[in-house]
Amino acid sequence: MKAKGKSLASKGLTIAGVLLAMGLLIWSCGPREGAQEGTAVQQIIKQRNLDPDDVKAALETYMPPGRPDPYLIFMSGGHSGQVIVAGLPSMRILKVIGVFTPEPWQGYGFDDDTKAMLKASSPQGETLTWGDSHHPNLSQTNGDYDGQFLFINDKANARVAVISLKDFTTHQIVRSELMNSDHGGTFVTPNTEYIIETSQYPVPIGGTYAPLNQKSFDDKYRGIAVFWKFDRTKGLIDKSQSFAIELPPYMQDLSDAGKLASYGWSFTNSFDTERAYGGDMEGKPPLEQGASQNEYDYLHVFNWKKAAEVAQQDGKYRMVDGMRLIPLKVAAEEGILYFVPEPKSPHGVDVTPDGKYICVNGKLDTHVTVFSFAKIKAAIDAKKFEGRDPYGVPIIAFKDALHGQAEIGLGPLHTQFDGRGYAYTSLFIESKVAKWSLETLKVVEKIPVQYNVGHLCIPGSNTEHPWGQYLVALDKWSIDRFKNVGPLLPQDEQLIDISGEHMHLLYNMPLGVGEPHYAQAIRSDLVKPWSIYKMGTNALTHEIDPNATPSEDKARIERHGNVVDVYMTEVRSHMRPDIVEVNQGDTVHFHVTNIEQTQDATHGFGVGEYDVNLSMEPGKTANVTIVVNRPGVFPFYCTEFCSALHLEMAGYLLVKPTGATSTASAR
Ligand code: K7E
Ligand code: CUA
Prior knowledge:
The longest helix is centred in the N-terminal third of the chain and has 17 residues, at 31-47. With 667 residues, this protein is mainly beta. Strands 8, 9, 10, 11, 12, 16 and 17 form a seven-stranded mixed β-sheet that branches. Strands 34, 35, 36, 37, 39 and 42 form a six-stranded mixed β-sheet that branches. 13% of the residues lie in helices and 38% in strands. It has three domains: 9-61, no CATH class; 71-526, YVTN repeat-like/Quinoprotein amine dehydrogenase (Methylamine Dehydrogenase, Chain H, 7 Propeller); 537-656, Sandwich (Immunoglobulin-like). The model is unreliable at 1-12 and 25-31 (pLDDT under 50). The structure holds sulfanyl-(tricuprio-$l^{4}-sulfanyl)copper (K7E) and dinuclear copper ion. Sulfanyl-(tricuprio-$l^{4}-sulfanyl)copper binds next to β25 and β29.
């Protein structure tokens, strides 16, 4: 695969031409100095063996010191379980947000609150220490990003997380026993009324057991769609107002919500309508083969507005694990669920910015199939169906829903929109991005990417108003792109300029901290995080923590039997108290408050051997509990280099063995 055209002639570009075109030759301060500057730039270009495309790309992605990026991109971290935040176009990583996996730098999963949250979302009673984050979705108001929240799913454990963009931290993780893997989440409706999560691998409902044979698979195994109700004022999902819909045991894949013309509806693609379940050692084909027989699978079309009403009507739902579940039969009868045949084991469904069309990416088919919502709706209204699936779900004929098909190439996976009439589809097998016209459904240009591209991200693509300046290709393989760092290679996130007539590659970002699947990007000025916490804020609840210690004179140690509460303050460069003496076997609650209100004056609180580490941003209160079964002397210290006397910001935890003399009485 040829990575990049090096032909200067074909581009008609020269170095000077690029520099001049961009107005960046620094001639303005007088011909003599200018000439020198020009020579210096030319020398760098020569020394570093750059061609005009390189120079142009460098100039377009470079952010001078102190200048923030105009866009923020939120990338899922795959099986790192986290979310990665970077700037566009510089591709500089700004933060890795702890979500499904503990993250010590942020103290995430180490304080009592986040530890409890991770534990509560773990089904087996033992805290899960990883997740598989796939699809971040930014909250929307009236079909556009509002910069308030980010949601993300954990495919491995069917969890959904809510991240507040006030402080870029995880605030809630929910899980339903109805499913135990999810992939078609998270996707929000245009006012973030609901967060959609659909299962991937069918299982018996409610975490029960059923043997794996065809009859049992057909009768007992089910897919699920959950519509999590989001309470924006609380910033939390409200499980009691959420509902689920039972689905046939097909493998539901990705989802997208309708908007404008298709508001109130949502769409989920699927594969394995063959209902294959593997069994390669039992004489059956492996799943990849069994699930790839049919020419068509089913696009699931949901009327979520209707479903929300039905979920409130007695007798039309049953409660499972505290959630209203609409049975498949009811969903089919009440006009909540319809199927449209879609070729062939597709991957990804994307609704156009005007809400009129639904693009299904063929995967095993070379097309993006474009369905018309108006046609789907007309068929539904006329009750014009070509039949029903074995579970009674009405099927709209392919031709009755079809707007047209765009012949794209090999392995179409995901489509994004630039808001100017073009769609961009990733071609996994070809390792290319295809730009095509939504009007003519014809490919206008392809650009090679390195390599095996999955999702694409155009800022605002899934809103009513995409910004459409950049495209990020999230590539799975990077083979020859970077210095070899061993058999586990970084992912390659490629920044492509799509603002002009032709696409051109600007930057390759090696990502060695996770495997992004999907990403969403937002204009930076729409995100308005806090710079510090209000004094005594609990970072999980965003309320004043009841154990906050807002000033040093309130710092204290309280003992109640064998329970010790340490109300500690931190300020440059000491902790108060700095000596904590307890007895072996005591339960010790540390309530730590950083009483600073200066931006970036972050402290830490680390206790070695007891697995404690907190990140204490200005104004934050965090609580951590340890049972001190091991006697000895344990230094604790500030883990964030906060000041010249940071190393002195330390203290001692003394755990007295039963019967020993105390430090105080020996003094
Ligand atoms: Cu295509 Cu999980 Cu959206 Cu990976 S998924 S690429
Ligand atoms: Cu406080 Cu280092």
